[in-house]
Amino acid sequence: MTPEPRVLEALTPQECMRLLQEHPAQVGRLAISGPPPMIFPVNYAIDGQDIVFRTAPGTKLDAALKDSVVAFEVDDVSAEWASGWSVLVRGGPGEVTDPDEIRRLSRLNLYPWAAGAKDHFVKISNAIISGRRFVER
Amino acid sequence: MTPEPRVLEALTPQECMRLLQEHPAQVGRLAISGPPPMIFPVNYAIDGQDIVFRTAPGTKLDAALKDSVVAFEVDDVSAEWASGWSVLVRGGPGEVTDPDEIRRLSRLNLYPWAAGAKDHFVKISNAIISGRRFVER
User: Fold this and answer.
1) Contact call for A29 and B70, based on CB within 8 A
2) Does A112 sit within 8 Å of B134, measured CB to CB?
3) B90 vs A114: CB contact, 8 Å cut-off?
4) C-alpha distances in Å from residue B7, one per residue of A29, A107, B48, B52
5) What are phi and psi of A116, to 5 degrees?
6) B106 Cα to chain A: minimum distance (Å)
7) Sign (positive/negative) of CA torsion A98, A101, A107, A111?
8) Contact B27 A77 (CB under 8 A)
9) A42/B74 Cα distance (integer angstroms)
């Protein structure tokens, strides 16, 4: 059996932001170039136009965030791959250090990838956002 | 509200392979170092110890597979982030060119990321496989 090929349609940045905001599980994947390249699932939130997530100091994810540019992706694909979308966010990660901002972000339901006494809040700001929707033709 | 931190437990390579084989949606994410770094959702299959997926010529995914090492990740995270796992596969992608092998792989229900008249079958062979399970403590 050969499945039907899919057609990719570009999404506007506005559609991408809406999909990121409405995604129910709020899980995305963060890729680090390395070497070695790595991918981590992270629980994210949207703060204005920025992606926010938490890391624990001393973890591989924390170490990997020394990268100047990371890729972060959120998708939703149907089980039969008949439809779906993928949004890609690329930008430089930066730790949030302002105490007021940390206090504000602490009220978001953000789950860190691993346990850690003092979590870091990391933001991807000024990111390039692109996305694709795919449909059966 | 501050969610409970999670503890990460390493998975054995055998557990990782079992999780990759049993994952119902058979969707994973492939990361390309770039620059620029990219992440694509791909529909995969397991062939022996190798990861197999399809790409269409001329797509960004096809172009990106010139990388010597790629990261491929499959995960399952509960909506409340109370439990979950993530398996990471790292290796060099290679196009399958043997006609018999292409014929055999064509019988797998593999959906390409984008439409293309002549799909490529790509394998990640001799990969390093690692994984983590996270649990609330």
Assistant:
1) no
2) no
3) no
4) 19, 22, 31, 31
5) -170, 135
6) 7
7) negative
8) yes
9) 13
Closest CB to B112: pick one of A5, A73, A84: A5
- For this complex, say whether ipTM is above 0.95: no
Optimal mutation site among A20, A39, A77, interface B, most CBs of chain B within 10 A: A39
Which residues have a Cβ under 8 Å from the Cβ of A67 and sit 6 or more positions away?
A: A32, A33, A93
Provide the residue-wise pLDDT of chain A in tens; the chain has 137 residues. 455 556 789 999 999 999 999 987 789 999 988 878 899 999 999 999 999 999 888 777 887 788 789 999 999 988 777 789 999 999 999 999 999 999 999 888 787 777 665 688 999 998 999 999 988 76
Query: Rounded CA gap, B68 and B26, in Å?
Result: 24
State pLDDT tens for residues A47-57: 999 999 998 88
pLDDT tens-digit map of B36-76? 889 999 999 999 999 999 988 877 788 778 878 999 999 99
Q: Which residues of B touch A131 (CB under 8 A)?
A: none
**A136 interaction partners in chain B (CB closer than 8 Å):** none
Using an 8 Å CB-CB cutoff, list chain A residues near B60. Answer: none
Q: Which two structure tokens, joined as six digits, stand for A75?
A: 């998708």
CA distance B7 to chain A (A): 6
